[in-house]
Structure to design on (94 residues):
């Protein structure tokens, strides 16, 4: 998993397209910071399935569900940004 993270970081760092876009933003007088979040999941295959490539494990398992366990606090800037994207946010989140 560590190697995958390094590979993703190097790919983004070496991207001419990303470097050009950041350069344009800097030339326009802005400081730039880039934060990306990646979610990578792993499922251990059963001993029978390892290496043979047959069978789709997702078909044999029950669907997974995810539940949020916390609240998100939005800043004023977060709200402005989301409104600019026409994304509604519950007032309770403030």
């Amino acid at each position: 998993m560590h190697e995958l993270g390094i590979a993703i970081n190097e790919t983004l760092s070496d991207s001419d397209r990303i470097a050009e876009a950041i350069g344009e933003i800097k030339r326009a007088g802005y400081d730039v910071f880039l934060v990306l979040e990646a979610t990578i999941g792993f499922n251990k295959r059963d001993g029978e399935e390892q290496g043979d490539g047959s069978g789709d494990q997702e078909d044999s398992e029950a669907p997974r569900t995810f539940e949020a366990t916390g609240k998100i606090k939005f800043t004023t800037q977060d709200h402005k940004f989301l409104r600019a994207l026409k994304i509604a946010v519950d007032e309770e989140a403030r």
